[in-house]
Amino acid sequence: MCGIVGYIGEDEKKEILLEGLKELEYRGYDSAGIAVIDKEHLESFKAVGKLENLIRKTQDFKAPGFGVAIGHTRWATHGKPTELNAHPHLGKYSYVVHNGIIENYQELKKELINSGINFLSQTDTEVIVHLFEKYKEELNDNFEAFKKTIERIDGAYAILLITKDEPDTIFFAKNGSPLLIGFNDKNEVFFASSDTAIIGKANRVYYLEDGEFGYAKKDKVVLFDKDGNLKEINTKPLATDKLSAQKEGFRFFMEKEIYEQSNVVVDTMLGRVLDSEIVFDEIKEGFLDGIDAIKICACGTSYHSALASSYLFERIAKIRCDVEIASEFRYKEPLLSKDTLFITISQSGETADTLEALKMAKRAGLKSLTICNVDNSSIVRESDVALLTRAGIEKGVASTKAFATQTLLLWMFVLYLASKRGVISKEFLEEEIRHLRETPKALKVTDKLHSKIHRLSKRYLHGHGFFFIGRDIFYPLALEGALKLKEISYLHAEGYPAGEMKHGPIALADSELFTIALMPKTLLYEKIKSNVEELSARDATILAISPEPFELADDFIQTKYATHPMIEFFEMMVITQLLAMEVAIRLGNDVDMPRNLAKSVTVE
User: Fold this and answer.
1) What share of the chain is helix, strand, coil (3-state, %, to 5)?
2) 123 in the same domain as 199
3) Do both 40 and 140 map to the same domain?
4) Active-site positions?
5) How far apart are alpha carbons 60 and 390 in whole angstroms?
6) In whole angstroms, what is the distance from residue 139 CA to residue 447 CA?
7) Whose CA is closest to 381, among 405, 346, 433, 406?
8) Are 493 and 408 in the same domain?
9) How many CB atoms lie within 10 A of CB 137?
């Protein structure tokens, strides 16, 4: 998501920051800013939109000679993409940039406001700089104040802080968000959230581990581990290929994004999933009053996440939920009543059919909520409430982490709504929250799993088609698995409800029909087992994905988790994504840029 750069040295600091931020554009952002301390003079610039806007703002600014500088590209998570919300954030005499999410920022902000401190932004980040200056005044020591600040904040963060009170120093800390330190033979020090920002400037790098923090000056970097012990910095040579560095060693962006899912869902939950409740600051008190039905409109992958959530809305929240394909909804003369919450889902926030469906609902007087990955997009601006998925930019055209975060966020919203409606117990909610927190481990890709799928993929390069089958929430997952395979391998694939195969499609069954069977242990296992047995008896080739060994399977991928249907859902989702990717790679296709497709569908 957001990007960070930092610099200590003699060169023109503005240029180093802007060049570094330019290399981080691939991560996605909606505003950018820099701050420089040069001979105790502190200067900052911010701009909304593309980096060119910041470059124009700083064209007359020069910062030669020794100094320290920090820069940031922001992907909005708390607060709209405005100049006030852009980083760096200012206290009285210090600046901070931050990636990640401070979970307890509301509590800290309230404490700081009560002590007389005024806030300029809507962000969680601003509490960091105010806490630092508060402790500086109490302790009269900058580094001790920084340490105390880090001790107080919970959540994920990569932080760089500079202060006029110590103009030759950058304070840094890392927990859950990437941060590295670069070095070269001119005794310059660089900071960045990704290698690409400092390639060509540094030649050695140290990748900070979670919990590490410290401070850097021109002639030294002092590092502490998570327990506060001094730690030696062992650097590695820095890569020189920028595109390769963006992919972080993966062959394709899609592969990188599949692996990222375990981390990005943590960002989706941060500050929202508490010990015994789900919190959405974006939803004002009373917004859901009078709502007795849900209607969801979406396209493609977003439609599949909507369809999966419809089972949860009705099963858990006890509310009617209808799901519509946006391009069809627009022309069916739909009946819309004001007791219906109209939900739109879009990765880009610019999907033309979904946007027009939303406008129809608003004209009919419905309350609207969107689930989206891009703040300030058209659909977000048009909606009454927006819940951001926080997936970061997704460069692969075939969506992976956007689908994962949409589905997770919908599960969270179902629980939030069910709690507001009073249809679930406190004990049930706490149990669901426990399972929500298990999701990241279900999304982890192991070398053993990926190797097995790579080996299996060579058997699935021919035949006359694929059927992905599942029941209940695994039916929408079957649809999504088939879509992924179609998008990037160009092989024909269909997703189907397992119980419907005998109502016609089973006529296609033979050894050249590949059936990908999603067989969760926690949901209708015996039913789908019976459906798969029917296909096996007609000589279909079966790849079973299940925690339970299935003797009729020609190929079998054993899953680890059988504690909750949604945990099984996410683990099987990763397997279908990897299978589609490995088949496509073996066929020699460009996985990131499949033919005829666009990332954002802005035409009807």
Assistant:
1) 35, 25, 40
2) yes
3) yes
4) 2, 599
5) 35
6) 48
7) 346
8) no
9) 10
**Other CB atoms within 10 Å distance of the CB of residue 373:** 28
Q: How far is CA 259 from CA 367, 447, 547, in A?
A: 36, 11, 21
Residue found by looking up tokens 């554009």 in the block: 25
- DSSP label of 90: E
Residue 596 lies in a domain: no
- Residues of the chain with pLDDT > 70, as a percent, come to 96
Q: What angle, 0 to 180 degrees and rounded to 10, lies between the N-to-C axes of helices 105-114 and 126-139?
A: 50
Taking the C-alpha atoms of residue 358 and residue 344, their distance in angstroms, rounded to an integer, is: 7
User: Under a CB-based contact definition with an 8 Å cutoff, are residues 340 and 368 in contact?
Assistant: no
Cβ count within 10 A of residue 92: 13
207 contacts 258 by C-beta, under 8 angstroms = no
* 257 and 337 assigned to the same domain: yes
Looking at residue 114, its pLDDT comes to: 92
DSSP string, 296-314: EEE-HHHHHHHHHHHHHHH
What residues make up the domain containing 371? 253-439
Q: 332 CB contacts (<8 Å, ≥6 apart)?
A: none
Helix or strand run (H / E) with residue 53: helix 51-57
With tokens 């993409």, the residue in question is: 81
CA-to-CA distance for 57 and 73, rounded, in angstroms?
A: 15
Residue 551, C-beta contacts closer than 8 angstroms, at least 6 positions apart: none
- CATH number for the domain that contains residue 426: 3.40.50.10490
pLDDT digits (tens, 9 = 90+) for 132-174: 999 999 999 999 999 999 999 998 899 999 999 899 999 999 9
Residues shown for the chain: 604
CB under 8 Å to 499, separation ≥6 — which residues? 471, 527, 531
Gap between the Cα atoms of 378 and 380, Å rounded: 5
Higher pLDDT, 384 or 62: 384
Contact 441, 265 (CB under 8 A): no
Q: How many CA atoms lie within 13 A of 373 on its CB side?
A: 29
- How confident is the model over 453-493, as pLDDT tens digits? 999 999 999 878 899 999 999 999 999 999 999 999 999 99
Report the predicted TM-score, pTM, of the whole model to 2 decimal places.
Answer: 0.78
Domains of the chain: total = 3
Burial (CB count <10 Å: 0-12, 13-18, 19+), residue 148: middle
pLDDT of residue 429 exceeding 70: yes
Helices (H), 153-299: 242-247, 253-269
Backbone angles phi, psi at 463, to 5 degrees: 80, 175
Q: Which of 419, 439, 459 is the last residue of a domain?
A: 439
Q: Is the pLDDT of residue 440 over 60?
A: yes
CA angle 164, 165, 167 (to 5 degrees): 55
97 vs 511, more confident: 97
CA distance 106 to 438: 25
Q: Please, are residues 130 and 168 in contact by the beta-carbon 8 Å criterion?
A: no
